[in-house]
Amino acid sequence: MDQTSILIVDDHRVVIEGIKSALLERSEFVVVGEAADGIEAIELVEKLTPDIVIMDISMPNLNGLEATKRIKTEHPEAHVIIYTMYSDKEFVIDLFKAGISAYVLKDDPLSDLVLSLEAVKGGGTYFSTMAPTVLLRHVEELEASSAQHDVYDTLSRREREVFKLLAEGDSVKQIAADLFISPKTVETHKYSIMEKLQASSVVELTKIAIRKKLIKI
Description:
By secondary structure, the chain is α/β, with parallel strands linked by helices.
């Protein structure tokens, strides 16, 4: 039987021992190395060329996110399984972009990590139940942002001027004075902008302007 070599990267000894214990009766997996931080992980991947790297995120010297990016760039054939307590959207998305093969939470049963190893060994992927939800939410945000971007392009030059000033907190009267137009005209532009951008308040307009980096906070 061909064995799948594994490098475990975690700065907690109890986690490493727990993983090794879970694999004791799984002869198809062999732990070839252990690392306590990202720098050591990169060095051992270069030296041992493991098939799979089980990687924590929060570690000293170099965290798991940056170590994973380096490993996947220099050794794209190495499969990385993230094994962490963090489910933050930013971590999940950045690691997906880096090309990980699995994302498992330490709160999940240890058997889930073994299942992820089996999936990755067979050429597949495995993700904790939270990961698809996080990714779906991210895709929805991207689609909403894209839609707002497309609609923003349809705003007239004057509407864009009014939009920016509204988002900056200027009153209708102030905007009218600055642009040398009547308050009634400003109100007309305001409601046209809100309708086009599907915003129900000036607060929502401000959020859109911040996302589009039209104003700074």
